[in-house]
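Quick one: structure for this chain?
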Amino acid sequence: MKRVVLLLVALLSCTMLYAQDSLRTDTLKKQREIGIIRETIRGFDRTEDEYIEPQHYEFTVMMQVTRTFENFYLSSNDQQIRLAPDGLTKVGPYFGWRWFFFGYTFDIKNLSFGSGGLRKEFDLSIYSSQIGVDVFYRRSGSDYKIRDVRLGGLNSDLFEDMPFSGVQLGVTGVSAYYIFNHGHFSYPAAFSQSTCQKVSCGSWMAGAGYTRNTLDLDYEELRDALNSRMPKGQTVELDSGMMFNSIKYNDFMLSGGYAYNWVFAKNWLFCASGQLAVAYKTSYGQTADEKKGFDIGKFNPDFVGRFGLVYNNTRWYVGASAIFRTNNYRSSRFSANNVYGSLNAYIGYNFMLKDKYKRKK
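Got it. Here's what it folds into:
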């Protein structure tokens, strides 16, 4: 009996030692995995100090004024109509932590919420030294106006600035791009103010993206609106390519471009960036003279441009930026082109000094 007890004690001791070793091994393995993930994440923001001054602070707050603009062109054969809403001026606060920048701007002319006539927009941009990501959501309001009309020699002044609520546009998408010269060139220095470019430098970029687009048009309302301005006894005949109710199309994009940071004085920076995208568009729609509608896949070009001017002394920063996009769709029946963007002016303050910069002081 004594031998049995000793054997059981020995077995229990071995089991406990094995469990402790296994736990220690699992802990070390998890620590190594966490370390690899941490180093990978840090690698996205690794730069060379002689070209780029890293962010000294953990957080930032910013106030921004934004002016939005948009133009929508609809063409079919020799007819073209340009619609655009009045520009909006919005103001609002932003908060930033490292790569991420969040904020909300308010239309200073209309601070109400939930109105169906208001445009709805959401943009999230992540800027690191190596990669950038844009997520965007846009829904147009009912405040479009006819700005220009080309209808077989008709006097376009008859229709200038005529309100038209029969068009609705929607864009939902995500795009990502890689910055090749990320050790020397800093996109965040120009557009998220989280670093400072010391030496003028540029970089090639390449990316990919996807967008889901919707276009709804009440062509009968459009025809009636145009006829309401026509001289007595004359009417407008729309081309059949413009006579549709709804089109939905998906964009699958591959893009490439170049960006350059010009450091023209101490703490000052001007950036210009352009990306041309080749977009494969699959679509579905139906015009008035087609019972089954059309389903077409086509390659069309899209473009994204960014410009920025900023002063940044690592504590305070002030600047302006402009971002605009084009979204084009062309078929044998018609073409639709949407150009939209924003002009921004901002002032911000960085706070909560990082530990390594505290030690330097």
